[in-house]
Amino acid sequence: MYFFLSNLSFIDICLTSTTIPKMLMSIQTRSNVITYAGCITQMFFFLFFVTLDDFLLTVMAYDSSHSSATASVMYTVVTPMLNPFIYSLRNKDVKRALRSFLWKKTIKGSTFLILKKCAC
């Protein structure tokens, strides 16, 4: 990611350096004249660096979305699947049934589990 950020900052510096020097010279000399060759050269480099900037931002977005694929699966698939269970735990009857089920399972497996009573 630092590779992309360093290249992005370099491209942004190059992008601003294609127009700012001519603008500053035009302000200082109070002359808005530019030659045809100068205009074509400035437009070429401006469009070149804008296109390069867009491609680099696209690659950076793809890289960050690819690395966070697990998190996006968690938020889009697992969390909605667990929401009904989480919200059903607010119901006292469901809590009581879950406690009795877990209590029976722990006694059957000869493992004792101390369940704290919830103040509901």
From TrEMBL:
Predominantly, its location class is membrane
Keywords associated with the record: Cell membrane, G-protein coupled receptor, Membrane, Receptor, Transducer, Transmembrane, Transmembrane helix
Q: Where are the transmembrane segments?
A: 33-52, 72-89
Q: Name one GO molecular function term.
A: olfactory receptor activity
Q: Which GO terms describe its cellular component?
A: plasma membrane
* Annotated membrane topology: Multi-pass membrane protein
Q: Where in the cell is it found?
A: Cell membrane
PANTHER family annotated for this entry? OLFACTORY RECEPTOR
Please report which protein family the annotation says this sequence is part of.
Belongs to the G-protein coupled receptor 1 family.
What is the recorded name of this protein?
Olfactory receptor 1078
